[in-house]
Amino acid sequence: EIVLTQSPDTLSLSPGERATLSCRASQSLNSNYLAWYQQKPGQAPRLLISGASTRATGIPDRFSGSGSGTDFTLTIGRLEPEDFAVYYCQRYGPSPPWSFGQGTKVEIK
Amino acid sequence: QVQLVESGGGVVQPGRSLRLSCAASGFGFPNFGIHWVRQAPGKGLEWVAVMGSDGSTKYYGDSVKGRFTVSRDNSKSTLYLQMNSLRVEDTAVYYCARDIWVGDQKGFFDYWGQGTLVIVSP
Predict the structure, then answer these.
(1) Residue A8's pLDDT band (boundaries 50, 70, 90)?
(2) Given B107, B110, B111, which is nearest A93 (Cβ)?
């Protein structure tokens, strides 16, 4: 089973700052099948990025994904108040389990 | 618009059963895989189970294998999760989520329901 490890666990930043979130896989991901989700308190997760770097429909361009193999990054260019949330990476592909990282909380400093 | 609405959650004693439903609308339900993903209180996301668009492919996470069964009724655009032999550690919000289920791009979720809470308590 591929294990995803996110860092840091918590990121304390101010609105307008840049956020850089990391996701490391225990094995190389085929075809960069890596997704990122955002979850706000009391809400369901929302797909942000698939294929490591392709923004989902309606996602602002301040969100960008990069990386390949085992190391992936989600960057939020300039934090807006609504961006403070928990972010999860997830590997997908032809076979299960489709595991998630443990999450990174982006909180207001 | 795409909608997924879960129902059937509640409080149940350990060892008992519960059936969750996920009613879909706004898209061609038979053409998509639908997953269950759960989140224990204050914890992260855990993939639980999926039923593929072919209606026969089913996969389960190790923690629920042998206890949970997924099924779907395409005529009702509804996915079910039959949960038997429930344990305290099954307490979570259960989300259903849509999967494009195309080629080898399986297991990422473009739409989610709002979830239904299952509490397993003596």
Answers:
(1) very high
(2) B107
Best residue in A3, A5, A40, A47 for a mutation probing chain B (most B CBs within 10 Å): A47
The DSSP 8-state label assigned to residue B61 in this structure reads -
Report the C-alpha gap between B86 and B29 in whole angstroms: 28
Report the C-alpha gap between B95 and B116 in whole angstroms: 7
Contacts of B46 (CB under 8 A, 6+ apart): A100, B37, B38, B39, B40, B61, B63, B92
pLDDT score of A30 more than 90? no
Which chain B positions have a beta carbon within 8 Å of A48's beta carbon? Answer: none
pLDDT in tens, B40-81: 999 999 999 999 998 889 999 999 999 999 999 999 999 999
pLDDT greater than 90 at residue A37: yes
The three-state secondary structure class of B50 is strand
Paired tokens of A6: 């996110």
Please tell me if residue B117 touches chain A, with a CB cutoff of 8 Å.
no
